[in-house]
Write a structure and sequence with these properties.
The chain has 276 residues and is of the alpha/beta class. The protein is 37% helix and 21% strand. The longest helix has 16 residues.
């Protein structure tokens, strides 16, 4: 496995590869990231995983400074997983001049997580476009846990005609259902025991929809109240269309339930697709 820090060296190295698969991360790797590398390995001759904590996607009161940075352990995990190249640019390499040119997603960036984290998806789209230009992958894998992010980036790839095949992988979960996330490490032992209740709540919403309940607002309110009674502070529980994350219309059958809620000081997100 090689560790490369500069764009120039990365491009030189990748010239010899016939097919490149890419998994962008912010480090602090877990089994979900490793599963993405496994899936992309089946499709390409060279797997690149990037590690870069992107300041642009953090708000002024968010956890950029304390976001866990575990580079040496991450490299060990990549080596064990058979990753070919870890691309680890620093901020000067990623943003050699102030990033005045930004990718401005449409209205989807302002709803759900975007309403709670203004500017977040602008920062995500900008850094991913830059990484795509640096790595020039044939295939890129993203996990569905960040469902709204997947929609933003898939639309970006399509509208800019980027020569990248986007693959969206199913969320990897712990045995008790909790979606794997780097931020799970912030949870106390008691909070970690409670955390699977977020996924349990999504499953109750799914069961209600499959049972024919049609008052979506009432289902959402009930779920918010259930979580709140357990000590959660929900930002939203929302039933949307899978295709564009807009409110479902009569006859829509492919839905997704999205959730974001704080447990103690940790903000967790999750989602569950529902096909009626």
């Amino acid at each position: 496995m090689e560790i490369i820090y500069s764009v120039a060296e990365l491009r030189m190295r990748l010239k010899q590869e016939q097919s490149v698969g890419f998994v962008p991360t912010m480090g602090n790797l877990h089994a979900g990231h490793i599963e993405l590398t496994r899936q992309v390995r089946e499709r390409v001759s060279c797997v690149v995983l990037s590690i870069f904590v992107n300041r642009l996607q953090f708000g002024p009161n968010e956890d950029f400074d304390k976001y866990p940075r575990t580079f040496l352990d991450d490299c060990d995990r990549c080596r064990e997983a058979g990753v070919d190249i870890v691309f680890a640019p620093d901020e000067k390499e990623m943003y050699p001049v102030p990033q005045d040119y930004l990718v401005e997603p449409p209205e989807i960036q302002h709803i759900l997580d975007g309403a709670v984290r203004p500017g977040h998806f602008r920062g995500v789209a900008t850094v991913v476009l830059k990484l795509f230009n640096m790595v020039q992958p044939h295939v890129a894998l993203f996990g569905k846990k960040d469902y709204q992010q997947c929609r933003v980036l898939s639309n970006m790839v399509r509208q800019f005609n980027l020569p990248v095949e986007m693959i969206l992988a199913e969320t990897v979960r712990a045995a008790d259902g909790l979606a794997l996330s780097s931020r799970n490490g912030y949870l106390t032992a008691a909070e970690r025991s409670e955390a699977p209740q977020l996924f349990a709540a999504l499953n109750r919403v799914k069961s209600a929809l499959l049972a024919g309940e049609s008052d979506l607002a009432a289902i959402e309110r009930r779920t918010v109240n259930e979580l709140s009674s357990r000590g959660w502070r929900p930002d939203y529980i929302s039933i949307r269309r899978q295709s564009d994350l807009l409110a479902p219309q009569h006859g829509d059958r492919d839905l997704v339930v999205l959730a974001a809620a704080r447990l103690g000081t940790t903000r967790l997100i999750d989602n569950l697709e529902v096909s009626l």
